[in-house]
């Protein structure tokens, strides 16, 4: 097993059955070796600095009805909100004064009728904070809309493919959603010059080790700039709300595998890791993750952006808790890196 890990670190790619072996080994020493090699490689690439992204949850209004998501269209128990431009810009001002140099606008998926408003917001952010990176995570849209936002000044786009297995995709989404279109959107984003992030939920209902291996193969081939991985956590008001949560351990193994396969990728230790287990975020960092995304959203809307139950959004998960976050990172020998945090091989000036 160590020979497989060493080959992945050297060649950055394995056969499918070798990925399966790394995911399923029950030997704690093998798992520890995988994690340690990923941690060492991440430190060699990025040092012990952890990049911050200021997360702004723009809206919990969504046109989709994904079967696992707490803000799905059919959930009538959600108190819906949309931040105003002023609220978003106030969040950015607060974040900038703290030291954030990347802002992430995340939200439910709107129709194309709000595209111009978002473009105007991006343009104003670019004007006010020209030294900052602007990341969007707003779902599937047309190529024209992605181009509009890119021209307005957006740098990065996060769109999880969720699964590369078509059958599994159909079990997690309504029939009106297209697996092919999700993958097409990712190709468009790359063509338009975004730094692109994608990823999966680990331990999603009906997911198998085989489908996770498919995802690894896809990610290694696609070579995203960012990789978003988090354990599945159910939401009680969804059709899949009775399924068990995913595994922090398996998610950490995936962090490690993908760090070794894609050494320069930006990999967040996600909020889901922190929500599911005490010390979960630190486990992600020790497995090769190098990004954390504290919440900059207004305090009175955070509880309404509930993609899953018991989401952490205060304390060290909030932008206002950066001092606590720094103290937490120090316990494992890491520190905050206050730069924009571009992928080393993909850095380029703003538009």
Keywords:
six-stranded parallel β-sheet, globular, alpha/beta, 351 residues
Strand and helix map with partners:
Elements: H1 2-11, H2 16-24, H3 28-46, E1 49-52, E2 54-59, H4 85-98, E3 102-107, H5 115-128, E4 133-137, H6 143-152, E5 156-158, H7 166-172, H8 179-191, E6 195-202, H9 209-222, E7 226-231, H10 248-261, H11 271-276, H12 280-286, E8 291-292, H13 322-330, E9 335-337
Parallel strand pairs: 1-8, 1-9, 2-3, 3-4, 4-5, 5-6, 6-7
Helix pairs in contact: 1-3, 2-9, 3-10, 5-6, 10-12
- Compute the number of strand runs: 9
Return Rg in Å: 19 Å
Sheet with the most strands: spatial strand order: 2-3-4-5-6-7
Main pleated sheet: 6 strands, parallel
Share of residues in strands: 5-15%
The percent range for helix content is: 40-55%
Mean pLDDT: 95
Poorly predicted sequence stretches spanning 5 or more consecutive residues: 347-351
Distance between the termini: 45 Å
- Structural class computed from helices and strand pairing: alpha/beta
Q: Would you list the SSEs in sequence order as H and E?
A: HHHEEHEHEHEHHEHEHHHEHE
Query: In DSSP terms, counting alpha (H) and pi (I) runs of 4 or more, how many helices?
Result: 13
How would you sum up the global shape? globular
Question: How would you summarize what this structure contains?
Answer:
The protein has 351 residues and is an alpha/beta fold.
Q: Could you explain the architecture of this structure?
A:
- Strand 3, helix 5 and strand 4 form a beta-alpha-beta unit.
- A 6-stranded parallel β-sheet has the order 2-3-4-5-6-7.
- It is of the alpha/beta class.
- The protein has helices spanning 2-11, 16-24, 28-46, 85-98, 115-128, 143-152, 166-172, 179-191, 209-222, 248-261, 271-276, 280-286, 322-330; strands at 49-52, 54-59, 102-107, 133-137, 156-158, 195-202, 226-231, 291-292, 335-337.
- Helix 3 packs across helix 10 and helix 5 (115-128) runs parallel beside helix 6 (143-152).
